[in-house]
Write the structure tokens for this entry.
Amino acid sequence: MFPSLQSNDAMLFCIHSEINEYYLLLRISSLGSCVFVFTPPSREVFCCNNMQYAKNITESIGSTPLIKLNKLVEGIVATVLVKLEYVNPGGSIKDRMALNAINDAEKSGRLKKGNTIIECTGSGNTGIGLAMIAAVRGYKTIFTMPDKNSAEKINLLKAYGAQVVICPTAVAPEDPRSYYKVAEKLAQETPHSFFVQQYSNPSNPNAHYLSTGPEIWEQTEGSIDYFVAGMGTGGTISGTGKYLKEQKKEVKTIGVDPIGSLYYDYYHTKKTVDAAKTYLIEGIGEDFIPGTINFSYIDDVVRVTDKEAYQMARRLAREEGILVGSSSAAAVVGALHVAKRLSEDTIMVVLLPDSGRNYLSKIFNDEWMKEKNLL
Ligand SMILES: Cc1ncc(COP(=O)(O)O)c(C=O)c1O
């Protein structure tokens, strides 16, 4: 009987041992392709045919890892797994949505080679995903952003060749100076432009229905009980939640909201009670209810403070070696709060949208943290 080995994405079957000290293996990938490989006993596999590479950067979007939290879960008996979306090539979960939106627009004929992609990108990540794909496919890009974003994020967009228009954060969404309205105006004025409109475009939640949800389902072998995510456009939680609930209706989805955003109050009272206030967490929370959030796939909404989220981001880096942004840390704060009352056999997946590298001058800068009263 020959041994079989499990690698990250494939099954390896040893079909002949020790030919000149090398093993001949049959490698069957998760996508079904078969290749013969020779490997030395160290298991450093090299392929004798069928080189393994992506045709371009867009093919490497998705298939992000799921990691167990070990130190931050003291006193919690449930298994808490985090899904690391910063591993996407553009550095965030938004690569998935950008790819699906561009693919859909190309298929429907709304986007053609040489056109300009326009979008309002609250945290910059949507812009980065769009700009990365636009670079490969030959589109120009213009993005509007609120001025609370870090300099790193603005420069990242420019690095991919995008034009960036910075707008004030502290104005109402319907104010003509807001980043939503400025993008709208640019879309009207720019010939041959495609306005992505991530706040109303069904390609946004669908991206997660088609990729994030199935990945989590497969990675947990269907044993997921809780899915926890922050809510910006709501695309992630709605699309992933829909897929997971279709597989197993008992799966509970928990939305995490920063204090100052409208979602928590809206979810619990069905009213947009108060004018939204500003907060520091980047990427989640809203000051209006977008068309891309579907509350029927959300079982509860919990809220977190800026201080809790920023301190958790530091702990994730120092105690778990996981360097993420404030929206990821906020999701972990909310998740741990819920996980405290869960039993040992419960599996929780928490979605971490982006990397802490985007926030070195904020979260990981003591001066900035002190100035904002977050330490
Ligand atoms: C850092 C970060 N976290 C969370 C989110 C929220 O994801 P969604 O818009 O799918 O709700 C975003 C969205 O842009 C983000 O950039």
